[in-house]
Write a structure and sequence with these properties.
five-stranded antiparallel sheet; elongated; alpha/beta; about 300 residues
Length: about 300
């Protein structure tokens, strides 16, 4: 009887061991299969991302050629290339790229704010600079920002030279947050402020504002002779026919001619910078890109890539 019990116990132990081993093998196999499936998906995703990026670069090149080839001297939303309704559709291999092009130079350009000395604010922008900080409801901060960005370390009247002043133009508006007076609410707006600083100024501009694409609030901010009614009239007119020169601007009914004369050196009709909003699709997969390019002659250079 004892020998039989021992044999039965041994067999049971072996059976349990086999079952445990099989369970471990099955668990290992399932874990490996799960790992392999995830790795395959990850590889497929990485391949798609790389292919999509290549397609976006090709699309950017093709669209940039169209921008560089636009030589009519003005850039506005009535042109098919910059239409807010129609989009550029490109078939590239198995992918489809859909691109919307927006001319920039639509706000006060920080690069054109100062005279060549990098210290003195251009006369044409003095009123606009004061007006935008009044619109931000912090009129005293404007001079602090000028001291923050100008080339010298001498304090302006009402300004302040601090250790963290960069004394150069910002490459991105977010750099202004080095000033304790500037935060995200000031930069981008909040519920009590319809628009932030980014509504009025830009790092993507040279010296002039393209009146064919600038928002009414920006146009009305430029000079006290121009109000929102004037600005909205301009916007309505340019949707019918682009404004090609100063004479077109002077010919607008009701638009103050004296303001045109005063602002002649800062009012432009074409853009140097353009934003490309791209959607790259294949089957049910999609990736989005935002690219800023700078036009120089017949070519464009990428200055910012976001995805």
């Amino acid at each position: 009887m004892r020998r039989g019990c021992r044999k039965s116990s041994s067999r049971g132990f072996i059976l349990v061991s086999v079952l445990i081993s099989v369970s471990l093998l099955l668990s290992s196999a399932m874990a490996f299969a799960w790992f392999a499936r995830n790795e395959m998906r990850r590889t497929e995703t990485n391949v798609y991302m790389a292919q999509s990026r290549s397609v976006a670069e090709i699309a950017c090149t093709l669209v940039s050629e169209k921008i560089g080839g636009d030589k009519n001297g003005y850039d506005g939303f009535t042109e098919a290339l910059y239409s807010r309704v129609e989009q550029i559709e490109l078939e590239i291999g198995d992918f489809q790229a859909i691109v919307t092009v927006t001319p920039l130079d639509d706000k006060i350009p920080l690069r054109g704010l100062f005279l060549p000395d990098g210290i003195t604010v251009r006369n044409e922008y003095e009123a606009a600079w004061d007006n935008l900080w009044a619109a931000m409801r912090i009129p005293d901060v404007g001079t602090l920002v000028l001291d923050f960005m100008d080339k010298d370390d001498r304090q302006k009247l009402g300004g302040s030279e601090r250790e963290n002043n960069i004394n150069r133009l910002v490459s991105d508006l977010s750099e202004l947050k080095l000033l304790p007076e500037i935060n995200d609410n000031i930069l981008y707006g909040h519920e009590r402020l319809s628009g932030g600083l980014n509504r009025y100024v830009t790092v993507y501009g040279t010296e002039k504002i393209n009146v064919n694409v600038a928002e009414p609030e920006v146009i009305a901010n430029l000079d006290d002779m121009v109000d929102l009614n004037h600005a909205h009239s301009l916007v309505s007119a340019r949707m019918i026919s682009p404004i090609k020169n100063l004479e077109d601007l002077r010919a607008l009914p009701g638009f103050p001619g004296a303001a045109v004369t005063k602002l002649a050196n800062v009012l432009g009709f074409e853009s140097t910078y353009f934003r490309l909003d791209m959607s790259v699709k294949r089957d049910d997969l999609e990736r989005n890109y935002r690219v800023t390019v700078q036009r120089s002659g017949s070519s464009c250079t990428i200055v910012r890539w976001e995805e």
